[in-house]
TrEMBL record:
It is found in: Cytoplasm. This is HTH-type transcriptional regulator MetR. CDD domains: PBP2_MetR (cd08441). It comes from the Bacteria. GO terms for molecular function: DNA-binding transcription factor activity; transcription cis-regulatory region binding. Its main location: cytoplasm. GO terms for biological process: methionine biosynthetic process. It comes from Advenella mimigardefordensis (strain DSM 17166 / LMG 22922 / DPN7). Keywords: Activator, Amino-acid biosynthesis, Cytoplasm, DNA-binding, Methionine biosynthesis, Repressor, Transcription, Transcription regulation. Belongs to the LysR transcriptional regulatory family. The lineage of its organism: Bacteria, Pseudomonadati, Pseudomonadota, Betaproteobacteria, Burkholderiales.
Length: 306
């Protein structure tokens, strides 16, 4: 009566937040998705969505099915990955580099899960802050690069992992904390704290300041997100960071988070760069699936990347 596709549909609705985005994620029309939900409701003789609210909310019955989905679907995916390992021989290597200073929050659990499922794959991780990782990928020194700065090349494929909003972290007593959103000119008298990356590869410049011809009063660099947040806390500057990187600090009354620009704000995409020839490699596909799955479990405020 209850099929795997039904559990996947309910999970997609929960993660996407609405029927339209869930339909896009499942590559079906919103009408087809709604029909599937009504079909299941007919089979169960229960309502799964409270359609009087906007967006529609899950009923108690749907929440019970989601509990079932959280138990069953990971086990099914794990079994599928095991079958992939049997079919592919499960040997190889996965050497990764990250250009994302705040990626460890979701990447470490992903790597742990990958090691358990692909024990015969040689796995290595390096921080690509002091070398050019994409040329290393093309040379074969690396197999995957986590980046938000794609450099088009026909030999490299950029697989979207998720979208995130770039927001401005400011001290509570900074005048910018009282603004509904930040305009580029608002940063002309501020010290901007950034990771040690070239300006042309930072979204705060390429997507926000440069188009407006605005420069911050000064730039200060720091490699670690906690150090950046402490500098903001002590009113030594402001910082543009991914929304999910600030989740653990949002409850602090000394930190305020302000949108960059009017709604919808500045949204960026995090990619996994791989060689085009490796796109169908089973363990790389498995890593990409795990990365998305675990990201949406661990990170708040991210969206599906299409």
């Amino acid at each position: 009566m209850i099929e795997i596709k039904h559990l996947e549909t309910l999970t997609a609705i929960r993660e996407a937040g609405n029927l339209q985005d869930a339909a896009e994620r499942l590559s079906v029309t919103q009408s087809a998705l709604s029909h599937q939900i009504r079909e299941l409701e007919g089979r169960l003789n229960l309502n799964l969505l409270n359609r009087r609210t906007r967006p529609a909310r899950f009923t108690t019955a749907a929440l019970r099915l989601l509990t079932l989905a959280d138990d069953i679907l990971p086990r099914i995916r794990s079994a599928e990955r095991e079958m992939q390992k049997l079919a592919s021989g499960s040997t190889g290597r996965l050497y990764l580099a990250i250009e994302c200073h705040s990626c460890f929050q979701w990447l470490m659990p992903t790597l742990d899960a990958f090691r358990l499922q692909w024990q015969d794959i040689s796995l290595d991780l390096s921080a690509a802050f002091s070398f050019a990782p994409i040329p290393a990928l093309m040379r074969g020194d690396l197999d995957l690069v986590i980046t938000s700065d794609p450099v088009p090349d026909e030999s490299v494929e950029y697989v979207p992992l998720f979208k995130y909003e770039l927001v401005l972290a400011v001290a509570a007593d900074n005048p910018l904390a009282r603004k509904r959103f930040i305009k580029p000119a608002d940063l002309s008298n501020q010290v901007l704290i950034t990771y040690p990356v070239e300006e042309e590869r930072l979204d705060i410049f390429t997507a926000f300041l440069d188009p407006a011809g605005v420069e911050p009063a000064a730039i200060r660099k720091s490699e670690l997100t906690p150090m950046i947040v402490q500098l903001v806390n002590s009113n030594r500057g402001v910082a543009a960071l991914p929304n999910w990187a600030l989740t653990e600090y949002q409850a602090q009354d000394w930190l305020k988070i302000v949108h960059l620009g009017e709604a919808p704000g500045i949204w960026c995409t995090l990619y996994a760069a791989i060689r085009s020839e490796d796109r169908e490699t089973p363990y790389i596909q498995a890593f990409l699936e795990l990365a998305r799955e675990i990201s949406f479990k661990h990170l708040a405020g991210i969206r599906m990347a299409t």
